[in-house]
Specification:
Distance between the termini: 45 Å
Number of strands: 13
Order of helices and strands: HEEEEEEEEHHEHEHEHEHEHHHHHH
Number of domains: 3
Shape: globular
CATH superfamily of the largest domain: predicted glycosyltransferase like domains
Number of helices: 13
Structural class: alpha/beta
Helix content: 40-55%
CATH architecture of the largest domain: Beta Barrel
Radius of gyration: 24 Å
Strand order of the largest sheet: 2-4-5-8-7-6
């Protein structure tokens, strides 16, 4: 059976633009990286960007629906993740039609394993194949993959050693930093970290304070004694260990839970200076930005956010006695608005700032967190200037 082409006329019910699809892929992949259940799949899913369309039909006894194009997120020998235009019940039987690397077609039967709403009319659906396939035949040859991997590695400007014994956190943080173009090497113990820095240089170390063999602050002390001068960032759910990190020779504490925004700020603050000077300005983008009909609403929100954050910044300089009450009001408003506007990181930062103020309301005690918060607001607003310039 010969392969089909991109001009076959099959209906695409989602009609996602490349920009929309990229935004949705980033959103869903980020959420999936934090989902511990999906880390236990029988085989690893690989991103899938076919040259030819993938078709799907829903099957039922005695009939088969007309095939239509679908957007495949990833694929493995045992299943695939797809974007679909409507909800499908668990165990719904389906048939997928792939174009293989040698120009043939491959019909694969399966059923719906899970279905979750993403946004608009987009649903993220997991398909389990009835019989395992060879996903490699759909992903291209090894030479092509090695060339792409080599190119990606050679383009990276920053390398990070991540010391963490929890495999879920290893996978999540590696994914999030990979989205930023960072090369991440993971190890699980303090001893492995001490060994790793002797075999190759790293631009930064990120390590958990609760390692199975050595306390994190002891690892920092030994890294410094061994002559390591690059930034060392520690992570912990216990923010009271921040002083211990600094005393050991670390640069800062990154409070858990770790988010994309926190990692971005970490890289921006402690990454190599030459990279920071050559990089594009960091932008905090709403998960709804890919929907053009949402942009007027988002633009109004960002203009409002800029006005509010400028007022807070002026109070911090001119009338610090009035600052705390104004910061609380802004944080409360953002906790109500920002999540719905597609900015969960702003919600998290506002919540964190409120917690600090609850512990001690003196402006000098939450000065650093407020600066990070205002910088995040500015990075969110900067997308307007960039979109106008484009």
């Amino acid at each position: 059976m010969s392969g089909f082409t991109s001009d076959d006329g099959y209906m695409d019910r989602l009609r996602l633009s490349a920009e929309n699809k990229h935004t949705l892929l980033k959103q869903v992949d980020t959420e999936e990286a934090t989902h511990s259940g999906r880390s236990r799949r029988r085989s690893e899913r690989c991103p899938y960007t076919p040259k030819d369309p993938v078709l799907m039909s829903i099957t039922s006894p005695g009939q088969q629906d007309t095939p239509y194009r679908i957007h495949v997120r990833n694929i493995s020998d045992h299943g695939a993740g797809i974007f679909h235009s409507s909800f499908l019940h668990q165990d719904t039987p389906v048939q997928l039609t792939f174009a293989t690397d040698d120009g043939e077609t491959l019909l694969v039967d399966g059923h719906v394993k899970r279905c979750g709403f993403v946004s608009g009319k987009v649903h993220d659906i997991g398909i389990k194949f009835t019989t395992p396939i060879s996903a490699a035949s759909l992903l291209g040859g090894d030479d092509e993959k090695e060339e792409a991997s080599s190119k990606k590695t050679s383009d990276l400007k920053l390398s990070v050693l991540y010391v963490e014994d929890d495999p879920v956190h290893q996978r999540m943080v590696s994914f999030l930093m990979g989205q930023m173009g960072v090369a991440v090497k993971t190890v699980s113990t303090g001893q492995e970290a001490l060994s790793a820095v002797t075999s190759q240089p790293y631009d930064m170390i990120l390590l958990d304070m609760e390692l199975p063999d050595l306390p994190g602050d002891q690892v920092i002390v030994r890294l410094r004694r061994n002559g390591l001068t690059v930034p060392i960032v520690a992570s912990s759910t216990d923010e009271t260990v921040a002083d211990k990190v600094i005393e050991a020779g670390g640069n800062m504490l990154l409070p858990k839970p770790i988010t994309q925004a926190k990692l971005t700020d970490m890289i921006h603050r402690w990454g190599p200076k030459n990279q920071a000077s050559n990089a594009e300005p960091l932008v905090l983008l709403s998960s709804l930005w890919g929907h053009t009909d949402a942009r007027p609403m988002l633009s109004d929100f960002l203009v409002w956010l800029r006005e509010q954050s400028k007022e807070v910044a002026e109070l911090a300089t001119m009338r610090p006695s009035d600052l705390t009450d104004r910061v609380i009001v802004l944080c409360q408003e953002l906790q109500l608005l920002a999540g719905g506007m597609g900015y969960p990181t702003l919600c998290d930062q506002a919540h964190h700032l409120m917690q600090q103020i609850g512990n001690d309301s003196r402006p000098e005690t939450y000065k650093d967190s407020l600066s990070e918060f205002l910088e995040m607001c500015e990075r969110a607003h900067s997308v307007l200037a960039q979109s106008i310039a484009a």
